[in-house]
Design goal:
The complex is a heterodimer of chains A (858) and B (617).
Chain A lengths: L7 H18 L3 H4 L30 E8 L12 E4 L6 E5 L11 E5 L5 E6 L5 E6 L5 E5 L3 E5 L5 E6 L2 H6 L1 E9 L2 E8 L4 E4 L7 E3 L12 E7 L2 E8 L2 E5 L4 E4 L11 E6 L5 E6 L3 E6 L5 E6 L8 E4 L10 E5 L2 E5 L5 E5 L4 E6 L2 E6 L2 E7 L2 H7 L6 H13 L4 H11 L3 H14 L3 H15 L8 H17 L9 H7 L1 H10 L3 H7 L6 H12 L7 H10 L3 H8 L5 H10 L3 H11 L2 H14 L2 H9 L2 H14 L1 H10 L3 H12 L5 H17 L3 H24 L8 H10 L3 H10 L4 H15 L2 H10 L7 H9 L3 H8 L4 H10 L3 H11 L2 H10 L6 H16 L1
Antiparallel strand pairs in A: 1-28, 2-3, 3-4, 4-5, 6-7, 7-8, 8-9, 10-11, 11-12, 12-13, 14-15, 15-16, 16-17, 18-19, 19-20, 20-21, 22-23, 23-24, 24-25, 26-27, 27-28
Helix pairs in contact in A: 1-8, 1-9, 4-5, 4-7, 5-6, 5-7, 5-8, 7-8, 7-9, 8-9, 11-12, 12-14, 13-15, 14-15, 16-17, 17-18, 18-20, 20-21, 22-23, 23-24, 25-26, 25-27, 27-28, 27-29, 29-30, 29-31, 31-32, 32-33, 32-34, 33-34
Chain B lengths: L15 H16 L5 E5 L4 H7 L2 H6 L2 E6 L11 E6 L3 H16 L5 E6 L5 H9 L6 E5 L5 E4 L2 E3 L4 H8 L4 H17 L4 E5 L1 H16 L11 E6 L5 H4 L5 H9 L5 E4 L1 H4 L5 E4 L5 H6 L4 H20 L6 H36 L2 H15 L3 H13 L4 H14 L5 H15 L3 H10 L9 H14 L2 H14 L5 H7 L29 H12 L6 H6 L4 E5 L4 H6 L1 H4 L1 E7 L4 H14 L2 E6 L5 H6 L7
Parallel strand pairs in B: 1-2, 1-3, 3-4, 4-5, 7-14, 8-9, 9-13, 13-14
Antiparallel strand pairs in B: 6-7, 8-12, 10-11
Helix pairs in contact in B: 4-5, 7-8, 13-14, 15-16, 15-17, 16-17, 16-18, 20-21
The chains are: A alpha+beta (858), B alpha/beta (617).
Amino acid sequence: MQLCADRSAADLKQCMPDICALSKSGIGNSVMRKETTVTGKCTETKENDYGDGDRVEIVERWIRKIELYEMGWNLKDGLRECLVAAAPYGGPIALLKGRIRRSPSARPQLEIYSSSGLPLASFPWKSGVVKQLGWTVTDDLLCVQEDGTVLVYDLFGGFKRHFSMGNEVSQSQVLDTKIFHSPYGTGVAILTGALRFTLATNIDDIKLRRLPEVPGLQGAPSCWAVLTQDRQCKVLVANESQLFILDNTACTPVTPPGLSPEASSIVQMCVSFSYKYLALITDSGHVWMGTSNLKEKLSEVDTKIKTPPKQMAWCRRPKSQQPSAVVMWDGLLLVVGESKETIKYHLDDESILVPELDGVRIISGTHHELLQEVPGACEEIFKIASMAPGALLLEAHKEYEKESQKADEYLREIKEQSLLSEAVRQCVEAAGHEHEPETQKTLLRAASFGKCFLSNFPPEQFVSMCRDLRVLNAVRDYTVGIPLTHTQFKQMTLQVLIDRLVYRKLYPLAIEVQQKEESDEVIAKAVSVKLADAAGISYSEIATKAYESGRTELAIKLLEFEPRSGEQVPLLLKMKKSPLALSKAIESGDTDLVYTVVMYLKNELNRGDFFMMLRNQPVALSLYRQFCKHQEQDTLKDLFNQDDDHEELGNFYVKASYKEKRLEARIALLQSAVDEYYKAKNEFSAKATEDEMRLLRFQRKLEEEKGEPLVGFPLHETMTMLLSVGLHKHAEQLYKDFRVPDKRFWWLKLKALAEKEDWEELEKFAKSKKSPIGYLPFVEVCIKHHNKYEAKKYVSKVTPEQKVKAHLAVGDVEGAAEAAIERRSESEISTVLSRCSSTTDHLLVERLNRAKATAAKK
Amino acid sequence: MAQTERRDAPELPDFSLLKRLARDQLIFLLEQLPGKKDLFIDADLMSPLDRIANVTILKQHEVDKLYKVELKPIVSSSDQLCFLIRPRIQTVKWISEVVNSDKAAGRFRRYKIIFTPQKFYACETVLEEQGVYGDVTTDEWNFYILPLDDDILSLELPEFFRDNFLEGDQRWVTTGGSALNLLQSVYGSFSKIYGIGRCAKMVYESWRELMEEGEQRTRQPEFAKVFLIDRDVDFVTPLCSQVVYEGLVDDIFRIKCGSVEFGPDVTSSDKSIKVMLNSQDKVFNEIRNEHFSNVFGFLSQKAKNLQTAYDKRRGMDIQQMKAFVADELKGLKQEHRLLSLHIGASESMMKKKTKQDFQELLKTEHSLLEGFEIRECITCIEEHINRQVSMIESLRLLCLLSITENGLLSKDYRSLKAQFLQSYGIEHLLTFANLKQLGLLEEQQAGETLTVMESKVGKLVNDKTAGKLTDAFSSLAKKSNFRALSKKLTLVPKSGEEYDLRVPRDMAYIFSGAYIPLSCKLIEQVLERDGWTGLEEVSRMLNGQEFAVTGGSNSSEARTKTDAQRIVLVMFLGGCTFSEISALRFLGKERGCRFIVLTTAITNSARLLEALLDNHP
């Protein structure tokens, strides 16, 4: 992207969201972390010219102390009598409390906290005596026991595994332990009771190495350290004034060049984070600093303190020219560097030093601070009366904000020296090293302002710094408690940071932080791989975060991993991915959810699109139809129309017709139904509907003529009614017009006439032609209406097969008997016999029995 | 004679607990609206509600007046209205109207809707669309299961059938899942789950999801096996006339929520009497599973015994008489009352069912099941329609004909439908559309020829390919395959064999020995095989969707409690008939296990078909 000066306004705006977002992501940064940049006591301080009141004084010298957190833990006795281990890169802190047993039953308590002192785990220690705690590079806690067993716990106190440092160690017990990090991983070095060193360079691939003996070593060495050199881990041991380097094969005596001769013993030593530098302090109070290969001396300072310090650490940023180490005694912290002067800090409380890549963190029972060399850019900009380009640019921007013309003067000054791009770079860099978001913003705004006057300035540095700071502010937040500096962050890499966040189960944050230019697919997969074993992970929650960070596609990819498809839907809707939401809802099998989406879509899309979408989703469609049936009849019609579903449209009109009271409208609806049925090639329904229309017209006509209420009744009913009021001709007409089956008509007329007790008409009917239903129904219907006389008229007409039944129906046992005997049917004879009673002529009974016997023989 | 329980039959779990849970929750919900309130109850919730909390309990929790939801303007002077309803759009729309008309009249009231068994989003949408979402509060009463008897649990959701199978609305699936989840959380986890049908599968999935979300209970299970079955797996059984006492009572008098109202023709007085029909009724309990032909004999024997018991009074001295009155008389009187009721009912049913029509109907039915004399059956059905004997009965026979014959010939299909429309009106075009959709009444497709081809091809290629072919063919035409299934599972015993209904030898006794219900036979087979192995062809003919899953975490533990292993929960999705329950009870006795039926509702042919009519407003 090419930026030109004349497009400054647009450019500025473009940058603004980035900057504004800084403070947004850093929620709560003002709550627990107040930043106090304090100078060393021995240096002169002055109010910074550019400071606007609450902005603090800046150091003139090279050290600044920043308060990271007020610790969230509540430790009664501070760190006293605790075994403490804090992981580098702002890692977690482990405490073993109550190691000195007050009663045999009291157990030590192991507690794990974040860097801000928020509890992560706490449990009573039930294993052996712990000599040392330490953290691995992957944030696992190592507990080295007296017997050489090392127990590994995860960040949340979950036991992972244990391993032994070998027989020799367990026999002679552990005297001292150091846990160290090297390019090979996390290592453990042990000094045994037998005054021998055993070393494992990588605890994930344990190869124990026993180092050679140190000549003349009678008791515990005065101090020792592990360093990696030439791709080998070595141990540096001080025995009084003698110094040895132990490697795999040999024990080599060494001498630090130019070490003051007054010393009779080296009491403490430390190796820098990079293993490149070594610092020693002697019993005479001299601090010697040099390279760890002991070839070069950098400086030596007399502290004049003869008591052995409690801890010592390097405090040096990479590429810095000045050596500096921090030495800690009870209540006192001393920074020594090149000059003879030292900087003293007073310590109120028992503290520990945690060496970092670019400084030292100081953790006490109540506070957590960072001591570091002031980064170059910050010094340049904030130095009193600095004329560095960055400082001028910052001032120019400040004037610009005040709408003062001085802005132009400052700018000119920078531009004249052609230092504007340098100025921008300085401001961006300084922003990276500042912990206070407000300061970060001020600096970035100044940089962005300066950028507007540069035509060819590459934007990457600015953009990536904005992004980095957003990440840093988020993870530095009190609730997360990873106080990384920008330098550490760059060293650690984003990938590792994400790993750590995931390990801490801060999944949403991990996603938020995931800002690299990786494809969404890769990120989503990476996240899922990392979470594979973790049960009960809500991917939708993670995806929500991704979406909130503007990564919609990533969010969708992440949702793919959500096993409960129902969980995916709300977010998909929020992201306006409605078709996907709909299919996911359907997949979930939760119809109510489908409904939610359908209703949402109905309001969201225009009708055509909405229908189109439903068309491909039968489940959703049938649901929506259900809804329309109750709520929106017309929509239902439109729906069928759109689908050219003529069959359903036909049904729709039929249904509408029988709800319609007015006849004309009703017929019109039926006509529509007929048209639709024809279109659907459903001839049967079309014909049936046409018949219905004809029937309705007929009924209306007759209703008008005869005043009989007929409209709306089925054909069968209509005919019955006509017959019952004596409109036989009309009934006949229907019979012919509608091709009513003969049987039906006969049954119908028979019943109707009997109902009316119109026996005369019935007889006429019976004689009109041969009955298609036979004459037994005539007999039965008459009997049903208690007219035996009429019934008997038809008995003779009944077919021979039904004769017996007919006779019995009219109560004529003799007739039945005759018929049965004539037919020689055993079963019929039996039926008749069963109807014979004591009053029956016994001759008849006899005849029947005989006939039965003959029939049976047959 | 009356079947007695086997002595080794496992003890059934106590389901009254479910009622207590439901009652407690309801009371809690009512108390969420403190003060006096009027309660409006959905008509079909009244009976179930009565079984959970009677009026007295409701009054105790400040329910002032009770109204039935009638979808009409209300007359209530209360300032608080509470609606206890099923989640139906129509009802919610009505409530919205009530609220809106109050608003228009400037009247302020508090409204609360309690949806049971759950809230549906669709209902909330209606509230929103009608502009009353903010005026009402809503709650859910998770009253999923009503225990109707010791071994019958019901969701009391008759609409499940139509909604799920006809309308394609699967909202109730989660209800089914929740019901199972409830049973599991109260009675322990299931070790094995079998099922068949699309809905069954979905219910299982929904339940499994609930299970995974919720905490796992590790208590001892009270029933270990579950069988889920969709109603559309077997439509034949519910379409058959019921001839076992309980089923017959349901067909004729309609048992509602475990109780029946006997009219004057039964009570031989001018009053109707409402009777609870369950195992508490000693007389009923002995005849409920009997073929109707045995019932009379049993009842008269019972009457004689009763007489003898009464007769003991003669010759008693005062002391004995006192003891008799105190101890036995009440029981005898109770028994007397019940006996006379059931005798009355039997008489009334006899009158209806021994009529020639009914006998002929049964004959037709049996012919259809056996596949004999189909032409005669069609004539008979035609006459039935022409004479307008009964609309539902005609439909029933038409459907039975279609399913057993794999659809009707084109000519018959058209003519029978035309006749039916002439008899009962054009609106039944819609009924036919519905029946067709469900595969209950269809025109024979070219599918028949396919079947012939299929069997020919089947002989030529191996089984697996034949299976694939069958799949392909069945996707061409949805077929019921009843005949083939019947053959494969020997559902229809060989005709001509004498079947002694007094000593049933298999489940066919519930249909006079003519047919073993497909649903129950499937259950029997799957339980016997502990899965679907060996039933591949059967399940293919039933359109697949079968499953068998080993569930629960502690199946080994379950094995120790053998009683639980012998209790099987059968869930019918879309309803089950009393005949099926009787058949399962019989099967249980044969196998020394017991079945608990969990159904969405009790159904029968009339209910099933009525649900498919399209005269719903």
